[in-house]
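Dear H.,

Thanks for agreeing to be a second pair of eyes. The structure we're designing against is below in token form, covering all 154 positions.
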């Protein structure tokens, strides 16, 4: 009897699992070489990648096309891109923001994190380290979103 039941269960077609959502990474940079490096890095790991300029156009595009995380390249600690960090964090506070910057001084790092960055990597950086930080921050933020959803439903 058990074998008959096992055969019957084995013949039941199993539904296809839904396709996993593909995370989208927004790369905000004006440096063509950095854009190509980051696009290749994230694409090779299965992410969709949007490359946006560090301008109001880039900010508008970021608001219109949802991303799982933003990687913001700030090549110069004195640039106006620091202000862009703050604008992104204020406009889309739930969006994880990883900053790549040339400065490695503690005060500079602290200032960027206070402006809304969730993580910081000094340039030059390890591509493997950046990928791991992106994976971790997306996973962390998706858990937070799920917890908020469960709280709203109860």
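And this is the sequence the design step returned. I haven't edited it by hand at all.
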């Amino acid at each position: 009897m058990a074998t008959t039941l096992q055969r019957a269960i084995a013949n039941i077609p199993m539904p296809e699992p839904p396709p996993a959502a593909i995370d989208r990474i927004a790369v905000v940079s004006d440096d063509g070489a950095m854009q190509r490096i980051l696009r290749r890095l994230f694409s090779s790991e299965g992410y969709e990648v949007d490359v946006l300029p560090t301008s109001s156009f880039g900010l508008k595009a970021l608001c219109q096309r949802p991303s799982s995380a933003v990687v913001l390249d700030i090549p110069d600690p004195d640039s106006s891109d620091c202000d862009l960090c703050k604008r992104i964090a204020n406009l889309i506070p739930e969006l994880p923001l990883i900053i790549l910057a040339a400065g490695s001084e503690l005060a500079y790092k602290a200032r960027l994190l206070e402006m809304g960055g969730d993580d910081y990597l000094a340039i030059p950086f390890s591509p493997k380290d950046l990928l791991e930080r992106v994976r971790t921050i997306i996973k962390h933020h998706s858990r937070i979103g799920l917890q908020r959803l469960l709280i709203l439903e109860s």
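Two observations from my side: Residues 21-153 form a domain with the Rossmann fold fold (CATH 3.40.50.2300). Helices lie at 2-10, 32-44, 56-64, 81-91, 106-114, 127-153.

Warmly,
E.
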